[in-house]
Design brief:
The chain has one domain: Na+/H+ antiporter like fold (Up-down Bundle), CATH 1.20.1530. The protein has 15 helices and no strands. The protein has helices at 2-23, 31-53, 63-85, 90-101, 109-117, 124-144, 153-157, 159-162, 164-178, 184-194, 197-208, 221-246, 251-262, 268-276, 280-305. The N and C termini lie close together (10 Å).
């Protein structure tokens, strides 16, 4: 239980600092957007490149990742089906589907993997899967559904290659696949810049909470509750059913995939929503609500399977 509480405490403190900065308008009216652009365009691509450049790509073929991928797809499809039946637009539908399925494998998943599962590398396959496949796909949809945009086919096909985070991820995977050693004078500046990513995202998220009411009390309440419940309750159950019933995982392997599935929605989803100026309230409050609900969810999973 200590690992779960430690991970949430780290996030809560940094988000709280961001909230205090927002209350005092320490960074001015545009501070949140500046932090968002910093994280989206510079820091996160560097973090992804340095992380993936040294990754073992063989982990992409593991049964655990197949379970995570299937559970992620099922959760996103479930939200999408309900959203389409209710006539929700493409932008909010994309953000909501991400909030229903995209796990916080970085700033929360890593400490929980260390303290609960005993191995930080267990979240590496999830990071790879989300950054190589899910993120470029979702951001491409957001790019192509911007109001008033009429992009030629050539630009549409090249959309993932114009996204900084997709470029950082793909470049890192390329370096890892080719086994290229990175010279220290190149690696250390990129690592230093990448270290700004998680704090910038969390601070921007904290600033965005200023003036906000309780989560899931606004106009987007049905979508917020739907995404949070799918994320913290439905996705872990799907992962457990697939892992135990289809892939026959047992013991620590079963615990690993269910704990990963029970992680809340990632804070960087708010960065995407803010960057594209779409469904920002939905992203912010879904992340906050799923983070609150994931505490009892993770404790329950650890108690039942640990």
């Amino acid at each position: 239980m200590l690992g779960v509480l430690t991970g949430f405490m780290v996030i809560a403190i940094v988000v709280g600092v961001g909230y205090a900065m927002g209350r005092r308008t320490y960074l001015g009216d545009e501070g949140r957007h500046v932090l968002t652009r910093l994280a989206f365009g510079v820091a996160t691509p560097c973090l992804l490149f340095t992380t993936l450049a040294g990754a073992d790509l063989s982990i992409l073929l593991s049964k655990r990742l197949l379970v995570t991928a299937a559970a992620t797809a099922a959760a996103a499809v479930l939200f999408t089906v309900v959203g389409l039946r209710n006539g929700w637009r493409a932008g909010p539908l994309t953000i909501g589907a991400l909030c229903s399925s995209y796990v916080n494998a970085g700033n929360l998943g890593i400490p929980i993997a260390v303290y609960v599962l005993g191995d930080a590398s267990l979240v590496a396959p999830v990071l790879l899967f989300q950054q190589i496949l899910v993120t470029p796909l979702a951001l491409t949809v957001l790019d192509l559904t911007r109001p008033g945009e009429r992009l030629p086919l050539s630009r549409r096909l090249a959309t993932p290659l114009r996204n900084p985070m997709a470029v950082g991820s793909l470049a890192g995977v390329t370096v890892a696949a080719m086994g290229l050693p990175l010279p220290r004078p190149l690696l250390e500046p990129l690592t230093l810049i990448g270290n700004m990513s998680v704090p910038a995202v969390l601070l921007a998220f904290g600033i965005s909470l200023c003036g906000s009411g309780l989560p899931a009390c606004g106009d987007d309440r049905p979508a917020i509750w739907l995404s949070a419940v799918i994320k913290t309750a439905v996705q872990p159950v799907i992962a457990w059913a697939l892992a135990a019933g289809v892939f026959h995982l047992r013991g620590a392997a079963l615990l690993d995939v269910v704990v990963v599935a029970a992680l809340p929605a990632a804070q960087n989803l708010y960065t995407y929503a803010s960057r594209y100026r779409v469904a920002e309230q939905l992203a912010r409050e879904s992340i906050l609500l799923s983070t609150l609900l994931s505490v009892p969810a993770l404790i329950t999973v650890a108690a039942l399977l640990g």
